[in-house]
Amino acid sequence: MKLVMSFILFFVFVYSTISNASEVFEFYNGVRALGMGGVQVAVVNDETALVANPAALGRLRDYFVTVADPEIEYGSDTNTLIGLDIMAGVAPQRALNALNAKPTLRLSERVQVFPSLVLPNFGVGLLGKYRMTGDISGTNFNADYVNDFAAIVGFNFRLLDGRVKLGFNTKVINRSEVKGVFPTSSTNLSVVNNGKEGLGLGVDIGLIFTAPWKTLPTLAIVARDFGDTKFSNGGVFNTTSLRPDTINQSYDIGVAISPILGKRTRSTFSFEIKDALNISAYDDAAKLYHFGGEFNFFDAIFLRFGANQRYWTAGLEFAVKNYQLQIASYGEEIGTDVAPVEDRRYVLKFAYRF
To answer: What is the Cα–Cα distance from 112 to 48, expressed in whole angstroms?
Structure first.
C-alpha cells in the first residue's frame, strides 16, 4: 500500500506543475487505455499490445483470435449532431452539413475495428479506423479527418527469464486525410478534392523491464515510428497526388506497479509520458501526461479510472467466456492553457474472441 500511495503522490506532484493543454492525436487508442487516463505502454496485456507496445506480446500466456471488436467513440455534442448515423460523422462533407445546421456544437467521432491473431511473443492484426473532429468558427469549418487501414505484424524476445522483453512491430499503413480550414459553404469536401493519401511503412520498438518483486514494478519504453513514417506512392485508392504528413519518431515512457489485493483480485497503477523526449516543443505539456489504474475482480469485472490531461477518466468491462463489453469516458482538452475547454467523450466496444 505504501508503494501505491507513493506512486499516486508522485503523479500528483508532477501533474500539478503543468498548466497548458490541447489535443494530441495518436495512431491507436483503445477503450481500456482511455478509461485508464490514456496509459498503455507499461500495462497493456492483450491483443492491442501489437500497436500499444509490441514488447507486451511477451506477457501473453495463450493465443487470442479476435474475430470482431467494433469500437465507437462519440464526443459530448456528437449524438445531438448526427444521432445514430455513424457514418455521417466520419465523412467530411456530411460532418460539415451537420455542423452547419447546429454551428455552436463540436463534432468528434472515432470508429475502428482491429481483428487479430496473437500468440505469446507474436501477433498479426488488421486495423481499420475513421476519425473526425470538426467545428465551425464564423464562416470557417475546422476539419481534421483521418482514415487508416493498416496491416501489423509484431514479434517479441524474452530475456533474463522474461524480466526484460524486447519487441517490435512493422506497420503498413494506408492513410487518407482531410485537414485544414474550409469555407462553411463547401459542398464537396472529400479526400479526392481536398485531401491527401499515401502508403507508409512504420516500425515501433518496445522495451519492458519488470523487477522480480511482489508488486512487479515495471518500466516500459516505446520508440514509435522509428526513423519516421513517411507516406509515398498513390495509396491503395490512388485518390490524389498529395501525400499525408510524415509521422515523426517519438518516445512514450511509462511506469507501473501491480499489487495483488486478494486471492482473485488484482490491481494496476501506471503513469505515462507521451513523446517524452520532445516536451519542450509543445506549448502545452499537460497533454503528454497520463495516469490511470485498474481493479480486476475474478478476470471478469474490471473497474478503471485515471486522469487524461486535466480531466477524469473512468471505464468498466465485463468479460464472460468469449465476449467482452467495455465502456469508458474521458475528457480531452480542446481549449488553451489560459482558457481550458473540456470535450467529454464516450467509448463503447464489444468484442468476440477465442
So the answer is: 13
Residues 234, 253: Cα–Cα separation, whole Å: 34
Determine phi and psi for 212, rounding to 5 degrees.
-80, 55
Domains of the chain, by residue range, sit at: 2-353
Give the CA count within 13 Å in the CB-facing half-sphere of 275: 17
Beta bridge partners of 168: 155, 205
Residue with cell 490524389: 240
- 268 vs 283: CA distance, rounded Å: 31
pLDDT per position as a tens digit, 70-106: 999 999 999 999 999 999 999 999 999 999 999 999 9
Distance CA 283, CA 112 (A): 30
Model confidence, pTM: 0.91
Query: Exposed (0-12), middle (13-18) or buried (19+): which is 314, by Cβ within 10 Å?
Result: middle
Q: Taking Cα atoms as reference points, which of 130, 148, 154, 147 lies closest to residue 47?
A: 154
> Per CATH, the architecture of 2-353 is what?
Beta Barrel (2.40)
The Cα–Cα gap between 166 and 76 comes to 39
Q: Are 225 and 196 in contact (CB under 8 A)?
A: no
Partner residues linked to 323 by β-bridges: 320, 352
